Structures are given as structure tokens and as C-alpha cells.
Amino acid sequence: MRRQSRETSVALWGISSHEEMAFRDRYEVLRTIGCGGRAEVQVARHLLTGAEVAVKVLPKVKGKAALSEASVMRWLNHPNVIQLFQVIETREHVYLVMEHAVGGPALQHIPSRGMRPEEARRVFQQIAGAVGYCHGQGVVHLDLKLSNVVVDAAGTCKLIDFGLSLRVRPGQKLRRCWGTLAYLAPEILLKREYEGPPADVWSLGVILFYLLTGRCPFRALLRSGMVRRIREGRYHIPDRVPPQARSLIRSMLSMDPARRPTVEQVLQHPWLREGEEAVPCQDGEPPPKRPDPAIMAALVDLGHNPYEAWVSLTWGKFDDAAAAYLILRHQLSQGPGCAFNGKPVRPAHPSDGSVLPRRSTSELALRPCASSRDHRLPQEAQHTGHKDLRRVSLAGTDLHWLLQRTPAPAPAPQKPSHSRKDTSTGQPKAWKRVARRLASCFRQLCCCEPGGSKEETPGTREQRRGRGRVRVAPM
């Protein structure tokens, strides 16, 4: 039944089964959560780890790759911006594999009369912090609205949908008129040249108004009426909105773009400085200087070469190896209660990054991470019997407990006594080779700079199986 629904989804997009191999060998589509004129958003399971992800399917236009969104997202790394895991390009489509925020759109969490001021402040701080970070990276969103903000399991807001976003220079003028009418700045509707950051600030003003009142500031029965209200800047703020918040809204909804505050100035407004919560940092999360040994060990258990994964991350390649590392890191960052959302399944056609033999989940036990000194081993992990080990699988395991190799009990000896030396260890010879490979990979990580050599590294080889290719967004 699931296979039939997946093939139906493929048929709707006019994609051949051969063309879909590059995606279906890595992910299993679970359900569709959004569909628009240009894209479809699905929830899928990463077959290697069992984690649920969001996948945005973009059609190519006139044979060219629809990679503009990926080329923007690859530069962004912020706790309030949705994280990109992988980019898969086929002949007709581009798949953007991203973090799945299970809380859904922020819009559905807003009461009909708006949030309490302290709640609205917390949400708006996160949204404005994400936009300020994007502006600092030279990225303007140009489609800011509450339906493009989602909430994860921890209640954190995440900015999504960079399909209309652009990388701009300071002072660069734009002319295109795209976006959602209720959030569009008047200079865009007047078809004038405009700068991206002030247009985003106008949209932030509309968002804050909606958070506090439960409705848009420019309401009208007809589209023409809404356009007229926006062009004239006519709106009314209810008396229940705090005076300081009203002052902030008016400054962001200024008709003159030059008089609007920057996002940095917005975050310093007295109303946003009230309360105990600090204004979120706009600097984002710096990329790690060295790999996490715990995640690298888990990658070996999943069959990936850890050195190849680190090369991909260093060079900004969103391929299979990088996706496995990023997904594991994201799951670990969600806290001790985070577990894989499904049982790992071995892909039908593993990528070239899977150079080490994978072990079945029945061979996986747990050990504590070196940085988690206060944790105790789960009850199941304290047993060595084969039945207990079966219960400790990736399907229901706290990701703060890493995988360790615990050999299955050796079968009863059936060979002559001279073979006792071979069977007494209980450890397959293949895993001795795995240990040597792992040691070699970590020597490479310690002694080599991925970008410092002109020779080809494991991360540069593209020997993909099937007709689909795994490609990344151009610089």
C-alpha cells in the first residue's frame, strides 16, 4: 500500500521510476504535508538512520537546475533557520532534504485574538533574530510570513522557504514584485526600485501585528482594497497592544523605507528588551573545526567512511556522507529524549561513501558519550545476551548513547578441537579489518587538511549508481 502511494506521488509529478532511484534509494516518502504551484513538501524517512526529514521537491525549468534555494541555504547555519541536510538532483527535479519541524507552521499556534505579549515577544525575537542573521550573511528573504515559520519539538521557531530569497550587496536595488500580498511593502506594490532589508523589516512589522492581534493589519474584502490600504499605510492597532509594542510596529510599518529600523535596531527596542529572556544572537553557529568523534564512530557503524564525511562537510557538499553526519548531529542536539523515529533500513543501492560493512541492528549496543559523564547506561545496555541486544536498536534509542560493538554469542562449537582458536574470540575477522580502516580514517582526519591538497580525496569521487546524480548547489 505504501509503495502504491509513493508511486502515485511520483506519477503526479511525471517522474519515471528510474529517475526517482537517486532519491528512493535513500529516503522513503511517508506523507505529503504541502503542495504549491512550483513545489511539493513531503515527510520522508532517511533509510540509513531511520530519522524523519522534510523534503522539498522542486521541478527544473527549461532543463536548468532549480538550485537557487539550495545555494542560499548552504550558507546559513542558525538555530532559528531550518537546516539543510542534503541536495539530490535528478534530470527533472531537485530534492532539498531538510530538518523536519514536527510542530508545524507557527500560524496554527496563534489564538484568534493574538498571543499574550510575553509569548509574542519570545516568538518575534526568534523570527527577527533569524532574519537579522540572514541579512548579516547578505541574504534577503523577501517572503516573510507566519506560514513560513515552523515550530520544532522543543518549541523553537524556524524560518523556512528561501525560494524567493536572494544574495544581495549593501545598497543593491531590486525591482521584482514577488511575495504574499498581505506582507508586501508598499514600495514593492508601487513598482519602484527597492532594497531588500527594509522590505523584510516591513514584513516583520506585519508579523508582529499578527502575533499580538491574531489578524493582519491591512484587511479588506477585495484584493484591490488591500492593495490600496497598503499603499496608503492605513491600519489600526487595537488598544490591548502594549504601548511599547505599538511604537515598534509603527516604526517597522513606516511608509518611507529609509525611516524603518534595521533588524539589529529592532532587536534593541525597549519592548523586546523587557522580560528575562535575552535577545537571540545573530551570529549563527560557527562550523566545527574538527569532527565529533562520537558521531564519527556512529558513521562507521552505519557503513560510512568518516573521513569522506568530514571532507564533504568541509567543502560544503550536501551529499550522502554529509547528510548522515548532519542528521546524526541534529538528532543529538535535540536533547536526551530524542530518538530515531523509525527503524533503519539498508538502502537498495548504497552510495560510494558506504565503504565499511554495516552491522545489523541486532548487533548494536550502547555506550555513553564521553561528554555525558552524568548519564547512566540504559537497563537494556547492561545486558550482554543476544535477546537484550535486539531491543537496543536505532529504532528506539536515545541518541545520546552511541553505538558500540558487542559481538553476538558464538554458536556452539561444531568443529574439531584444532579450530578452537578461530572460534573462541567470538569476533568475525571482517571486523578486525573494520577496526584497521577506522584507525586509518582517523589518522587521515588528524594529519590531513581536506582543502590543503590538490590531490583527489574521497569526497571528490562521484561514482553514483543509478541514473540520478547527487549534486550540490553551485557557489
Automatic annotation (TrEMBL):
**Matching Pfam families:** Pkinase
Protein's UniProt keywords contain Nucleotide-binding:
yes
User: Which enzyme type, at the first EC level?
Assistant: transferase
Q: Which UniProt keywords apply?
A: ATP-binding, Kinase, Nucleotide-binding, Serine/threonine-protein kinase, Transferase
Q: Which domain of life is it from?
A: Eukaryota
Provide the residue span(s) of the region labelled Disordered.
346-390, 407-430, 450-475
| CDD domains according to UniProt | STKc_AMPK-like
Q: What SUPFAM superfamilies would the database entry show?
A: Protein kinase-like (PK-like)
Biased segments, Basic residues type: 466-475
SMART domains registered for this protein in UniProt: S_TKc (SM00220)
| Domain Protein kinase per the UniProt entry, residue ranges | 27-272
What are the recorded Gene Ontology BP terms?
intracellular signal transduction
* Catalytic activity entry: L-seryl-[protein] + ATP = O-phospho-L-seryl-[protein] + ADP + H(+); L-threonyl-[protein] + ATP = O-phospho-L-threonyl-[protein] + ADP + H(+)
User: Which PANTHER family does the UniProt entry name for this protein?
Assistant: MAP/MICROTUBULE AFFINITY-REGULATING KINASE, SPERM MOTILITY KINASE 3A
Q: Which family does it belong to?
A: Belongs to the protein kinase superfamily. CAMK Ser/Thr protein kinase family. Smok subfamily.
Q: What is this protein called?
A: non-specific serine/threonine protein kinase
